[in-house]
Structures are given as structure tokens and as C-alpha cells.
Design brief:
The protein is of the alpha/beta class and 909 residues long. It has 32 helices and 28 strands. The strands form seven sheets. The chain has an eight-stranded mixed sheet. The relative contact order is 0.07.
């Protein structure tokens, strides 16, 4: 129980006794009581009587009034006028005077507690009116849970100084009206001109547009030069046109069914209009340039959250030298989605982490009070859809969407708070959805009572126009002219759209940071890329990177790891970790950025990487790569225990900076299952849907080594199933040098493709999984590696395989001295190296070809290769584990028996 609550119920005699003791000797009472009694001027006269003469009864009432003030600050948001279409739920206890131990007879009594809210001594009537106007009108504020007194005081002082009653100049009111007019009329125009077409209308939440306009203007005045917006489909067309500046003509052309200009070299399939992204440059009212980006987003509503945050962080690192005050993310949610989608929680948990923070996000919830058809009471257990904000102690402003000035006031305060404290802030825009989930849907089927209210409810524009006319700010003719002129503009653009043959792309991809790059052509995919480095540079970097500084006490095992790496230089046998780290070192040397994140990536799940090492006697860390030339561009972060949001973040990061080797590593390959939406909706299809390239690298540890169903397979088959038209690269390398060249190739091409790598576990330390200096300095990436241990004329069977199983097969080949079996490694599973396969078929013309894999027959690469090579001269058959619903057995003995059977069958001719 807090002190005020205790005091409001305390025995008056007890307090009187304390006061008498305080008067005799202030030090005789507890310090908190000293401060309390010092807060009252007991000698001052009010109404002919002094406070001292009213003790103890009046003192008790003072405490109760203070308790009421704090009660409104804490719980006033529960009793606001924020719902535009229906009564709010009732909460107990309420805000009646009796709740605080007061009554009507106290209303005209003067209380010194008015000092607390800046009124000075005041009647209870005036104190109550003040806090009612501040905390229980169109804005409900939740912030008292923030564990930072300065932040609480900032919000409290601002709100109580203004009483949440905006006093905007007439110019601001007219701008708000103009943007609201555009928002409302645009939706009305679409609804009448394209009857029945899906547009996911903003109707019922149109005040979002003047709110976004205001936050951009206010943000610009506070130093923000760029905003990145992520949102789902509702209201997206309105935001694209009336905030981003996408041409009405283009949007109308999309509704008319016009196609974008065809490019024979790319496989552009397009997307529905309410999923598309956009970017533009606008000028603020103060004449400042502002860049706006709206990230594309699929129907997986909140997937864009991580993507937008990654885009912002990438620009902070690349463009703004770490200054997050120059750029801000805005995430626009739906009420049902923000409460129920797990990625929202994951993304919010990233907001204060070193590897992912973006200086605070402005969250706006378009609160329709309903999901697709689900009532809000069935959509969440929390009081508010925004209760997730409390996880990071972010303030929330619940605002009546029909009070557009209150919304603009709240969002301006929100962006000030973000700039000042670099944390998230939430705006809960309470509105409604005038139609169903889409315009062809009938909402009355599931929400008849709500939609009876909505049918009778005037739109936000009508409400605001009426308010301005009553104020004398405008007359009716002004509002009618505004509407008429804007409708005429829309009609003109619609007429122009009807004459369009094809839509031209308004935002070229290969500009800005992407300048100098281009879309990939089919003929590019198989071209060799020079990724080798000089012997001198390689050895120089290898020695420098692995020489730990003297005078620092590292763990003995760490010291040995680095000593062993130096020995690799002498023995000319470089293991997997060295191959990987050398790829990073050489890219940094060439002034590229390298960013790696994922669970425990600094050390590596299998203790192989040790890119960051910790001193034995402290928490001090040392990062060898950061000490090299270009090392200031190296970042490696252990992520939170998330796959979905973190992968989305890294995709966003890579989308903005193509000159960064951006890597996400799963702890085990199958953990990527938790991020499958990002693979499906962005990584594999983003270029086809949105003409947006991306070079993100995903490392998925893979290998059947008896570790059970959940630590064996990265589900290669899933990524190959997503593969088409050279959209992604899927690889399963067997040598450190080939992996080295694969990583370097990502940045040495003049186009970008996502790369999925099935990375090893046991091969990290396999004695034969090593490369020599010549492999790094004289070769390049090999899509297919032929068998150098056999002669073609002696070969009766060619075993095509990929990844770890090669070494099991090699052990058998060498033990049995088999020269009639050729082991050919397919290092790049997709795009398929058809020309190289055909050359092998001709080379081994008399041999049969079989596909051997350690995965089950219905998994791994076989189903894909079976389909792709069906009807070809290869006529492949497979040797694999039997089909199964589980990726692997959980019993080591069974695993070993299965593995032995596969190996033996591969050599049975």
C-alpha cells in the first residue's frame, strides 16, 4: 500500500500526534513524515481559519485530496471519453468522490493540495475539474508505471500545464482540416468509383492522416530527417497517397487493373496494391527536407515490424553515424494484431538492446475495436490492446479518433518524448471500422449492435468541420470549397489513369545506397566471380587477427584456440572457423560492413567462432576483427531468444545497405521454423512481388549426427521448395575455402540475392574438412566439386551428394580403396549448375548416377532434384533414409545403423 493510500485511511489521532511531535522536534519523526509536514504551510490562513486550527480533520482531507489527484493520474485513463461510438466498460473502484473518502460537502473547501497540480490553494471543485479535464476527456494517458521519476514528471507537467486541451493557431487547424479532408474524401471517392473492390478502407480512423502529417512536421522541427513506416493493409492506400505522395493517378491505374512495365530480364509478378511500399522526399512547413519510406508488407500483419526496425538501424549505422535522433520508425498496428501477434512482443523486446535499438519507435494503433469479425472481448485478455507497451515501460496515449486535435496534440507529445528519452511510445487511436474487414464483407453478421451505432455516427470530417464553424475558425463555405476542389483533383487523376497503358515505376530500386547495382539476369547466375585474395594479404590478416594482446588474461582454452589458429598458418590447414573469419577480415579490409546476429553468435553455438572473447577475471571483451583495418565496420551481436523478429530485422537491415554482409545465424537450423513467415513472404518472394533485392545471408546448422529430431535438419527441402527463377541461393558447402568464397561472392557481384547456407556442426572440427592457402588465394567458389581421387574411365557409379555425408562416403571410399565410385559434391543446391552437371554426365558417360543423402527420402535436396532432373538423361535414383514424419531418430544406435546402411548401399554395385 502506498503512503497516500495509507494516509487516506489512517487514524486522525495518530497523524495529529505525529504532527505535534514534529512541531516540538522535526527530527523526532521519520524523514518522510518531515517532508510531508513541511509541504503544508500550517500558518497560512484560508477562509478565516489556519490549517493548524483545522488539524487533524483538515489534514486528513488534504491527504485524501492528494490521493484523489494521484488516483486520477494512475487510473484516470479508465474513465475517459475516448470511445467515439459506444460506452466504455465500467471499472471498479470508480472516480466518485466517495472512492477517495471525500463528498459533495467538501467541494467548496479550499485545499492546499492544489499546489500539487499548479493551482495553488484551491477549492476541491476546481481541483477536481482540473484533473477531470486533464486525465478523463479525449486523451487517456498511461505512464505512472514508468520507473523513472524524470520521465513521469515530464509527461505529468506537460499534460497538466495544457490540461490536454490543444490550443492550436488557426493555420494549424486549417492544415489539420486539409489533411482530414483528403483522408475522408479519398476513401469516399474510391468507394464510389471502384465499387466492391478491396481497398481496406481507413473509414472510421481517418484522423490517422492528420496525425501522421503532424508527427512528421513536429519530428522535423526536432531534428528528424527521415521516417520509416511499417503498417498492415488497413489505410495503406490513404497513407501512400496523402502522406507519402504516391500519385493518385498511379493508385487509380492500379484499381483499373493496369500492369507495371514489363521487364523481360526479371520475373516481376507484382502484389496487391495495399501491400506495396513506397519512398519519397517531402519538404516540411519549415522548409526542411524529409525522406519517407513505407516498407512493403504482406498480409502477415505485423511481420513488417522487425523489417522496419532493421531498416532504421541500418541507416543509423550507415548514414547517420550512430545518431538515432535523425531517423525514427513509425509502426502502425491494428488493435487485434498488436494484442495477439507474437512478433510484436519480440520486436518490442529488441527496443533497448545494443544490437537492435533504434532510438525509440512511435507506435500508432488503429483501434477498430474488432478483428476480422472478432469482438475485442474475445481478442485479448488484457485491458487494453496496447498493454504490451508496459513491457518496456513505454507511455501510452489512448485518444478519441473523432477528436482530431486531441490526437495531433498527443502524437506531438509522443514524438517529443521519443526524441528526449529515446524510447518507444504508443498512441492508441480509438475509432471504428465503418465497413467489414473489406468492403465486400458484411460486418452485421457478427457485430450487429456495434454497426447500428456506426451507421448513425457522423464521420470525423463532419465532426471537425462542425467544431471549427462553431468556434468561428472557418465558415461552411470554406469547408465545402475544400471538399469540392479536392474531389475535382481526384476526378482529373482518375480520367488520366484511364488513358494509361502501363504503369511506370515511380521509385527506382537501384538508386541511393543501391546505386551501381542492378537486377540479376539469368545469364549472370552461373558466371564465376573473382573472390580470391593475395597470399600476402591473407597471411597478414590471419596473423594479426589471431594474435591476442599481451597483458590481458584470457581463459586458457581461448588462448589455445588462438594459438591453434596461428599454427594453421604454419601447417597450411585452415579449419571452418578460420575460413569464415577470414572472409569477414578480407571484406572489412575492402571497406565493406559486416554484421552478424543470432543466438550466441559471438562464441558460436558449437564454440567454434570465438569472434568475441571475454577476459578471465572481468567482463571485459576483446574482438580481434574490430582491430583490423576496417574493423570499425564489424558488428556481431548475441540476439534475444527470437527467430521471427530478429530475422525480419536483419532482412530490413540488408535491404537498406547492400554493401554490408548481413548475416543471421540460427542456433540450430531447424530453429528457423519460427521465422518461416519471413522466409516465405520476404526473403524468397520480395524481389518477385516488390522488385526489391536483398543480399541477406542465413546460416542454418545442419547435419544428421544423432542429436535427435530437433537438432539435425535445417529443412533444406523447404528452402528448395521456395526456389524458382533464381530468387535465392541455397548452399551446403564442404570446405572452409568454398565457404570463404561463397560469403565473399555475396558482395563481389553487382547484384544481390538472399543466401541460405546449411552450415556444419561436426565438420567444424573434422580433420579432413580443411583448406590450404592456395584454395583461398587462387580459386573461387565451386558450385560442384568433382572427385579428384578417381579416373573417369574406371568409374561405374557417380554419387551426387551434398554436405557432411561426403566425408562419411569419403572414409568408406578410402578404406575400401574404391576407384570405381566417384564422389561428386553439389555445393550449391540452387540455382542448379546445369552446365556443370551436364559436363559431368559426359565425362562419366558409362557410369550410373545416384543421389545419396543422409536425410529422409521425403526431405533434404532429393525431392527438389528428383523433380528438376525428371525426364533428363541423368535418370537418378536415390539412396536415403526411409520416408518419415520426423526429421531424425532420437536414438543414437538407430541413427548409426541408418547411416551405415546408406553408406554401404552407396558402394554396392
Amino acid at each position: 500500500m502506498d503512503k497516500l493510500t495509507y494516509l487516506s485511511n489512517a487514524d486522525s489521532g495518530y497523524i495529529d500526534a505525529l504532527y505535534q511531535a514534529y512541531k516540538e522536534d522535526p527530527n523526532s519523526v521519520d524523514a518522510s513524515w518531515q517532508k510531508f509536514f513541511e509541504g503544508f504551510d500550517f500558518g497560512q490562513t484560508y477562509g478565516g481559519e489556519t490549517i493548524a486550527e483545522q488539524t487533524p480533520e483538515h489534514t486528513i482531507k488534504e491527504i485524501k485530496v492528494l490521493n484523489m489527484i494521484h488516483g486520477y493520474r494512475d487510473r484516470g485513463h479508465l474513465f475517459t471519453e475516448t470511445n467515439p461510438v459506444r460506452e466504455r466498460r465500467k471499472y471498479f473502484p470508480g472516480k466518485e468522490l466517495e472512492t477517495f473518502g471525500l463528498s459533495e460537502v467538501d467541494m467548496d473547501t479550499v485545499f492546499n493540495a492544489g499546489v500539487e497540480i499548479g493551482l495553488g490553494p484551491a477549492k476541491l471543485r476546481d481541483i477536481r475539474q482540473f484533473i477531470e479535464e486533464t486525465y478523463c476527456r479525449s486523451i487517456g494517458a498511461e505512464f505512472r508505471y514508468i520507473r523513472h521519476p524524470e520521465k513521469i514528471k515530464f509527461l505529468q507537467d506537460r499534460m497538466e500545464a495544457d490540461r490536454n486541451t490543444p490550443n492550436f493557431p488557426i493555420e494549424t487547424k486549417k492544415r489539420i482540416l486539409k489533411k482530414l479532408n483528403e483522408a475522408v474524401i479519398f476513401e469516399s471517392f474510391l468507394g464510389t468509383k471502384f465499387l466492391g473492390q478491396k481497398r481496406f478502407s481507413l473509414e472510421g480512423g481517418e484522423s490517422l492522416i492528420p496525425a501522421l502529417d503532424s508527427v512528421i512536421q513536429k519530428g522535423s522541427s526536432l531534428g528528424i530527417e527521415e521516417f520509416v513506416i511499417g503498417m498492415a493493409h488497413r489505410g495503406r492506400l490513404n497513407v501512400l497517397s496523402n502522406i507519402m505522395g504516391k500519385a493518385y493517378k498511379t493508385i487509380f491505374s492500379e484499381f483499373e487493373g493496369k500492369m507495371y512495365e514489363a521487364d523481360p530480364e526479371t520475373q516481376f509478378g507484382g502484389d496487391v496494391k495495399y501491400h506495396l511500399g513506397f519512398s519519397s522526399d517531402i519538404t516540411s512547413q519549415e522548409g526542411k527536407n524529409i525522406h519517407l519510406s513505407l516498407a512493403p508488407n504482406p498480409s502477415h500483419l505485423e511481420t513488417v515490424d522487425g523489417v522496419a526496425e532493421g531498416m532504421v538501424r541500418s541507416k543509423i549505422d550507415m548514414k547517420y553515424a550512430g545518431d538515432s535522433s535523425k531517423i525514427a520508425p513509425i509502426l502502425i498496428h491494428g488493435d487485434a494484431a498488436v494484442a495477439a501477434q507474437g512478433i510484436v512482443f519480440e520486436t518490442i523486446q529488441m527496443s533497448k538492446l545494443d544490437g537492435y535499438k533504434t532510438g525509440g519507435t512511435i507506435h500508432i494503433v488503429i483501434n477498430n475495436q474488432v478483428g476480422f469479425t472478432t469482438n475485442y472481448k474475445d481478442g485479448r485478455s488484457s485491458t487494453y490492446c496496447t498493454d504490451i507497451a508496459k513491457v518496456t515501460l513505454s507511455p501510452v496515449f489512448h485518444v478519441n479518433g473523432d477528436d482530431v486535435e486531441a490526437l495531433v496534440y498527443a502524437i506531438n507529445l509522443a514524438v517529443e518524448y521519443r526524441q528526449k528519452y529515446k524510447t518507444d511510445v504508443f498512441i492508441d487511436l480509438l475509432g471504428y471500422r465503418r465497413y467489414g474487414h473489406n468492403e465486400a464483407d458484411e460486418p452485421k453478421f457478427t457485430q450487429p449492435s456495434l454497426y447500428k451505432l456506426i451507421e448513425k455516427h457522423p464521420n470525423t470530417l463532419a465532426i471537425y468541420v462542425d467544431k471549427l464553424i462553431k468556434q468561428g475558425s472557418i465558415d461552411a463555405a470554406y469547408a465545402k470549397t475544400l471538399e469540392k476542389d479536392f474531389r475535382a483533383i481526384l476526378q482529373d487523376r482518375l480520367d488520366a489513369a484511364k488513358t494509361v497503358e502501363e504503369i511506370s515505376d515511380e521509385r527506382p530500386m537501384f538508386a541511393g545506397a543501391w546505386k551501381g547495382l542492378r537486377p540479376a539476369k539469368q545469364s549472370d547466375i552461373g558466371k564465376p566471380v573473382i573472390t580470391k585474395v593475395t597470399k600476402t594479404l591473407f597471411l597478414e590478416l590471419a596473423k594479426e587477427m589471431n594474435s591476442l594482446p599481451k597483458g590481458k588474461k584470457f581463459f586458457r582454452k581461448i588462448t589455445k584456440v588462438y594459438e591453434d589458429r596461428l599454427k594453421m598458418i604454419e601447417t597450411d590447414k585452415y579449419d571452418w572457423a578460420m575460413g569464415e573469419l577470414m572472409a569477414y577480415a578480407t571484406l572489412l579490409n575492402e571497406d565493406y560492413r559486416v554484421r552478424i546476429s543470432g543466438q550466441d553468435v559471438q562464441r558460436g553455438t558449437f564454440s567454434h567462432r570465438h569472434a568475441v572473447v571475454t577476459l578471465e577475471d572481468s567482463d571485459e571483451t576483446y574482438t580481434p576483427l574490430s582491430k583490423l583495418k576496417g574493423g570499425d565496420k564489424f558488428s556481431i551481436y548475441n540476439s534475444l531468444l527470437s527467430e521471427y523478429a530478429v530475422l525480419a530485422f536483419e532482412y530490413g537491415y540488408a535491404s537498406v545497405n547492400p554493401n554490408s554482409l548481413t548475416i543471421w545465424e540460427a542456433q540450430f537450423g531447424d530453429f528457423a521454423n519460427g521465422a518461416q513467415i519471413v522466409f516465405d513472404q520476404y526473403i524468397s518472394s520480395g524481389e518477385t512481388k516488390w522488385k526489391r533485392s536483398n543480399g541477406l545471408v542465413m546460416l542454418l546448422p545442419h547435419g544428421m549426427e544423432g542429436q535427435g529430431p530437433e537438432h539435425s535438419s535445417c529443412r533444406i527441402e523447404r528452402y528448395l521448395e521456395l526456389s524458382a527463377n533464381d530468387n535465392i541461393i541455397v548452399a551446403n558447402c564442404t570446405t572452409p575455402a568454398n565457404y570463404f568464397h561463397l560469403l565473399r561472392r555475396q558482395l563481389h557481384r553487382d547484384f544481390r540475392k538472399p543466401l541460405v547456407v546449411a552450415t556444419p556442426k561436426s565438420l567444424l572440427r573434422h580433420p579432413k574438412a580443411v583448406s590450404s592457402l592456395v584454395d583461398f588465394t587462387q580459386k573461387s567458389f565451386q558450385e560442384i566439386i568433382d572427385d579428384a581421387n578417381v579416373t573417369a574411365k574406371s568409374v561405374k557409379r557417380v554419387v551426387l551428394c551434398s554436405g557432411k555425408i561426403y566425408y562419411d562416403l569419403l572414409e568408406k571410399q578410402e578404406a575400401d580403396k574404391r576407384k570405381d565410385i566417384a564422389l561428386v559434391r553439389v555445393e550449391q543446391l540452387f540455382p542448379i549448375a546445369y552446365d556443370q552437371l551436364e559436363a559431368l554426365r559426359k565425362k562419366y558417360a558409362k557410369a550410373e548416377f545416384v543421389w545419396v543423402q543422409e536425410e529422409n527420402e521425403n526431405m533434404g535436396a532429393w525431392p527438389f532434384y528428383c523433380r528438376k532432373l525428371s525426364g533428363s538423361p541423368f535418370n537418378l535414383r536415390v539412396i536415403a533414409r526411409p520416408e518419415s514424419g520426423s526429421p531424425a531418430t532420437g536414438y543414437m544406435k538407430r541413427h548409426l545403423a541408418q547411416q551405415a546402411e546408406i553408406i554401404n548401399k552407396a558402394f554396392e554395385i
